[in-house]
């Protein structure tokens, strides 16, 4: 496997379910990101991790819970979601953060989430 | 704060037409500039980038020149193909953004045969 992979690619869940999205990067990067992409809205940065430590949390509701057990893996745990949370969730990685020249982000294919 | 403004879409062109997608930015420092492309049903892919004024990024026939005097990074291609249909995102990063990407809203490009 190369690049950034995400599983599952599609997920349908009810509002009372608990599910997790998984992201894995095979690039040796130190930083990982979760984005939300909704129709007709700009790309929203949700969480940023650097060396397994969360460095940014952009006012995301607590029903989204990230986890970064190591620099290659990133999870997004979901519980009691709302229909408006339906979107494409994108994972990305970059070599580092906060340093010029390490800022190019590489994206996975995304998980298309539908909340019923 | 930093920001990126892209022309609104969709942009609809015929095959082999010349393409320009405008992107302008606001930044206090000396940002790096990026174009990403998102094909239907996929994630974003880096298309090209430029890290200093007057640099030209190029890839797959697309070009963009970093113009500091006009704070622009317009994307161009001389002859588009149906396979270029996608959403194109302009982005920047600099010290003020802590080198995280600041994104434009995206421009949808539709190429008709």
Mean pLDDT over all positions of chain A: 91
Shape of chain B: globular
Largest sheet of chain A: 7 strands, mixed
**Number of helices, where a helix is a run of at least 4 consecutive DSSP H or I residues of chain A:** 0
Distance between the termini of chain A: 32 Å
Summarize the structure.
The complex is a heterodimer of chains A (116) and B (113). Chain A is mainly β.
What is the topology?
The complex is a heterodimer of chains A (116) and B (113).
Chain A: E1 4-7, E2 10-13, E3 18-25, E4 31-37, E5 44-50, E6 53-57, E7 64-70, E8 73-79, E9 87-94, E10 106-107, E11 111-115
Parallel strand pairs in A: 2-11
Antiparallel strand pairs in A: 1-3, 3-8, 4-5, 4-9, 5-6, 7-8, 9-10, 9-11
Chain B: E1 3-6, E2 11-14, E3 19-21, E4 23-26, E5 32-38, E6 44-50, E7 56-59, E8 62-65, E9 75-77, E10 86-93, E11 102-103, E12 107-112
Parallel strand pairs in B: 2-12
Antiparallel strand pairs in B: 1-4, 3-9, 5-6, 5-10, 7-8, 8-9, 10-11, 10-12
Task: Kindly describe this structure.
The complex is a heterodimer of chains A (116) and B (113). Chain A has strands at 4-7, 10-13, 18-25, 31-37, 44-50, 53-57, 64-70, 73-79, 87-94, 106-107, 111-115. The model of chain A has no long low-confidence stretch (mean pLDDT 91). In chain A, the strands form two sheets. In chain A, strands 2, 4, 5, 6, 9, 10 and 11 form a seven-stranded mixed beta sheet that branches. In chain A, strands 1-3-8-7 form a four-stranded antiparallel beta sheet, with no helix packed on it. The N and C termini of chain A lie far apart (32 Å). Chain A has 116 residues and is mainly β. Chain B has strands at 3-6, 11-14, 19-21, 23-26, 32-38, 44-50, 56-59, 62-65, 75-77, 86-93, 102-103, 107-112. The chains are: A mainly beta (116), B mainly beta (113). Chain A binds chain B through residues 4, 6, 42-43, 45, 48, 56, 90, 92, 97-110, and chain B through 32, 34, 36, 41-46, 49, 51, 89, 93-95, 98-101, 103-106.
